[in-house]
Amino acid sequence: MSNDASDVLLEARFDTDAIITYRWIGLLPICLFVVTIPFVIIAAIVYAFLLRQIVASWSATLTRRALIVRKGVFNKTEKTIPLEKITDLSTVEGPIMRFVGLKQLSVETAGQTGGAGAALVSLTGVVDTDGFRARVLAQRDLVSGIGAPAEVARPDRAETSTVAPSGELREIADTLRRIERVIDQLATRIDDRS
């Protein structure tokens, strides 16, 4: 899969300030149990710095055929998810997330690894989450041929084409037709010998 700059259709942006606010709210219970206030202030500043570095390392790039997600400051991970494998992009927005204006986008794929209900990739704080989600799903549908006009299938087995394929799909369809012809020829030879 090429990461050619001309192949990139959309680059996700993350709302760093909202993500930090959301994570800081998680520090509030810690503040109740910590005796020394200066420690909490220093910890909050270090925490904000680390979160900025972490969020700055996130990227989600939509290409013509895949969604590429990169994360990590120390341990860098990159996942390339072919669009035709994506079954759903779900969004989660809890009360605190709604308060700071965040949504979490979860990418679910066919045959994904992980437990039931676990997402392959989760992206928190994508700017215009709904727009990014809609664009990824539209590109997935375009790549998968969902919604493409279908022709009426003809009863002749050698000429069954239900969708006008393009590019790689056309090559696969042509190869399958050639294999089918060879199998038909072999079956005819076997019948003639019997």
In total, the number of domains comes to 2
- Widest beta sheet: strand line-up: 1-2-3-4
> What would CATH call the architecture of the largest domain?
Roll
Rg: 25 Å
Write down the CATH topology of the largest domain.
PH-domain like
**How far from one another are the termini?**
49 Å
Question: What share of the residues does DSSP label as strand, in percent?
Answer: 15-25%
Q: What is the multimeric organization of the chains shown? A: single chain
Mean pLDDT: 80
Largest sheet: 4 strands, antiparallel
The percent range for helix content is 40-55%
Derived structural class:
alpha+beta
Which CATH top level class of the largest domain fits? Mainly Beta
Ranges where pLDDT stays below 50 over 5 or more residues in a row are 149-161
- What's the helix count? 6
Please write the string of helix (H) and strand (E) elements. Answer: EHHHEEEEHEEHH
Count of β-strands: 7
